Fold this protein.
Amino acid sequence: MSDIAATVASAAPEAADDDGIVKKKKVGVFFWIFTGWVALVVLASILAPLLGLQDPNNANFDAINQGPTTAHLLGTDDLGRDILSRVIYGARVSLIVGFGAMSIGMIFGGTLGMVAAYRRGAVDSFVSAVSYVMLAFPALVAVIAIVAFWGHDIWKITIIVGIASIPLVYRVVRAATLSYATREFVTAAKSQGATDIRILTRELLPNVLPAIISFFLIGVASVIILEGALAFLGLSVQPPTASWGNMISESRTYLSQNPWLALFPSLAMFLFLIALNLIGDSLRQVLDVQDSKL
Amino acid sequence: MSGELVVDEGFPTEEETQGLLLKVTDLKTSFATPRGRVRAVDGVSLELGRGETLGIVGESGSGKTVLSRSIMGLLPRRTTTQSGSIVFDGTEIVGAEDKTLRTLWGAKIAMVFQDPMTSLNPVVRIERQITESLRLHTSMDKAEAKATAISLLGQVGIPSPTERVRNYPHQLSGGMRQRVTIAIALACSPRLLLADEPTTGLDVTVQAQILDLLSSLQQERHMAVILVTHDLGVVATRTDKIAVMYAGRIVETTTTRRLFADMAMPYTKALLNSTPRISDPSHTRLTAIDGRPPDLINPPPGCAFAPRCESATDQCRTEAPPLRPAPSDPTHLFACWNPLPGGTAGRVTTLEESP
Amino acid sequence: MAADTPLLSISDLVVTFKKGRQNVQAVAGVSFDVFEGETLGLVGESGCGKSTTGRAIVRIEEPTSGTVRIDGTDLTKLARRDLRKARTEIQMIFQDPVSSLNPRRRVKDIVAEPLDIWKTQTGDERAATVREMLEAVGLDPDVASERYPREFSGGQCQRISIARALVMKPKVLICDEMVSALDVSVQAQILNLVEDLKARYGLTLVFIAHDLAVVKNVSDRVAVMYLGRLCEIAPSDELYSRPAHPYTEALLSAVLEPDPSKEHSHVTLSGEPPSPIDPPSGCRFRTRCPKAEERCAAEVPELREIATGHQVACHFPTLRSTS
């Protein structure tokens, strides 16, 4: 015990009160605010048709480029469509692409990563080598090229970005799993006669999930930004479908006339991304502490 | 000249420190943590003469490592609070600036750590790790420093030092790496060497070699050594005196021979008895100490060892016994209301009853 | 089972690792028997292969050759599925108490895991077994069951590992440096606990450690390993009072006794242990042995019995008469 931190840690053992439950580290107020915001956005976008919103594609040439009014709470765009409802419907695109792509990445890349870290050996070497090659390729360029070639409806984009995220997810999950796969409780499970599947699901997964949850959320944020980039290049969902990305992209032309057109989708996207990042970070801190007794 | 162990109230005077190399007076070191203030060292006083060897014995959480770091002045300033005094060769360490401490580190006072793999820089060759200290504190040039480094490696028993000096740490075995850290520590002939668990984790034959090495170097150079360990076997034949620590305080201290012959503190005895010994027959029941070391944030009132002590009385649980000399032998200090019977430690129940 | 048939029988065990392009024989032909109810200590310095031997017995490391027989069945020949089942008969306890337990599972689930894998008991029976085991290792089930490993100290974690290992009532328990990471006073508690459990459950143990005093305390017989081979094997008291192999003598004399009057004169072993990649020919200890002669380089010494139950692998063992 030559480390001061270790001395301090041993001086204040976790189970200090006689019956000692470790005091769980609390998350701050902001955590709940941002979680609330994320929940709000998700719910609103799912329940959009039930919210009594105006038709997002309803062009009303009497009311173009208006600022916020009682009829249009966030104003209208260049075709007289209600910005509020477009922002809410537009959230759907971001959420589907974001969570969808990352889920594809997690399911395939994550499983591969866990198996590779657990089994090591030839499988690990081969898949890791392939992942290095794929990661060396600039993802954005590849995605743009494939989207331009194959098509840009929301599902194709989700699949393409999802596949593009597999190598990175693979490496992150593999690294996270490795730190647990080498520990002796895994060896102990094996020596008790547990099958590999059981070890992966019962022993490793509960340890790996908290470690990658913040990576997942930050990944969702990155994908949403990627969709925005695609929209700027005209490669995201096509008008009249609303997405945050293409709303911001279209707003460039009308910036001086109607700044609200740029402001609200930007604000929505910005707040959502910050929320995801912050939630991810807080979760990582809380869950890390629980694990750091070592 | 071997100093007397006397507990002082005030700070040392000039005359008192002249013969002594190190005088620690009522040192208290604590750390701020989220759970509260950890009182790692809670009022420690000791003295060390030039060329003497002191063993500090304790388990993890006893404060021995923090004590050794405090003596060197190596603790992180931001989170550490210190009070009391540490006078090393005339210089006050508590509260000293880094500038002052840097003139001492390596040159007059050096440390050997427990794990040589982490205390050696893995990407720097051995040669540079030794010569760095030499170039810093002396006026040697590169060639002289290299020659000194090679000679040092020879002195610590590393074969083929001229080749080894160009190696990286990972190319050496554990025992050899530890020898290298000793060589680095000795480079500028410090007056005091602090060895913090220097042999824990090494094989038993290597352990013996390293400890023998330390002993012979110490005698050659008339260097004072503080050996910090949890193993009473390590200190039994290689120290002039021993201080036993528990919960941040010294609970017993005296010359080595007297300690083993005549233990006063039940903790010391219990520590000795709970270690299995080669000389005992197989399957000897060990006298294990029940319970666990106390919480250093909220230590119990009274004697810190009372909850685990077989001879504890109500007084032990309410009043913390002070460290004071045995009636018939002032060099034997202990902190106990019910010391073990026999020998110099007589029963003293209150402070007023003095010899 | 007959009293003279060993419960666990290791024969010519060899374990080879690939280090880069070279082959390292961590275990180079080790044979010993363990009888029911006895504790065999396996002692040696780092790199001697004792931990690898323990892991090879349970096939965590795959033996390159040799046999491991438990109750007659050769574990090395078993196919995957049979091996899984046979594994429950030998359990292992590891050195690092914290890393041995899954930090995200509750103690009661950790201890019940083997029962859950093999579905050997009903829910209520399982709960009762878990309770019994936790109590047997000195933990209060009401307090401990619902907690997570991080809420416990090193010694308590080791107790939980022991409970988990015993829950399937294994025939043999392999303890791989199980007290090395613990504090002195905790170590004593755990060693006493092991003695109590041995008496209560009639356990058979292979106790691997580097601390000679600890091994002597716990074991009935002790085997000394050096660089992948066995040097000497004898009943504990016999080995420590009348060591025959020069390496054993050197080891024993290097032990630091907490007794200032014992100025130890230890046989200074010259140099460092050679690399296992390129071990010396013949007797592997000869490069550091004060008695080495030509024969030692030419011929590998076999384990020979020099007294009842006392075997040595040396061409020039120190034979002492029992006086």
